[in-house]
Amino acid sequence: MTETEILNIFKRTGALLTGHFLLTSGRHSEKYFQCAKVLQYPEYTEKLCKMIADKFKNIEVDTVVSPAIGGLVVGQEVARQLNKRFIFAEREDKKLTLRRGFSLEKDEKVLVCEDVVTTGGSVFETIEIVKRNNARVVGVGFIVDRSNGKVDFKFPQFSTLKMEVVSYVPDECPLCREDIELVKPGSRKIKR
Ligand SMILES: [Zn+2]
User: Among 110, 111, 135, 171, which residue's CB has the most CB atoms within a 10 Å radius?
Assistant: First the structure.
């Protein structure tokens, strides 16, 4: 799929919104991205994850590992297409860990999958889990790179789309100056 086709899917499913948004950081942005909106549709999940699976199909992978919750759908679908095992790490006392009897063996080859990377925090934590178990990361695949390529995991990495996230402190926000209504995504509109 081309970048335009991917962007069209994001727009059509409401995953990518344009307007004036209040981010959780308190900053304002013209764009808002919610990956779960596109992953509602198995048809699109399959297409996007195929790009990731294709990218890594020629390297040896034993297991796909994802950080919950965001990475679950992506990891599961990539693993299905590669016909490999899928496990996930989840937060316990704010720390990502393997639970439910999931484990990794020494030298097991792991592909880490995630939905969205902004700072890469959850992926870096997942990589640490793999290393602690003496298994080996062979790649990192994700749907959207919101760092626009700035986050480097030091392993072969692939995203279906890179995105520049422009945000402003409220005082310097050009959208505020234009008097465009401020919206907090996922909740009711905010009156200004
Ligand atoms: Zn603003």
Answer: 111
Q: Distance from the CA of 157 to the center of ligand 1, in angstroms?
A: 33
Residue with tokens 């970048």: 3
Task: Please tell me the distance between residue 32's alpha carbon and the centre of ligand 1 in angstroms.
Answer: 13
Q: What is the pLDDT of residues 175-186, one digit of tens each?
A: 999 999 999 987
Question: Which residues keep their CB under 5 angstroms from ion ligand 1?
Answer: 28, 173, 175-176
- Report which secondary-structure segment, H or E, holds 8: helix 3-12
Residue with the two structure tokens 């989840």:
90
Residue 62 in tokens: 């034993």
Cα(182) to centroid(ligand 1), Å: 6
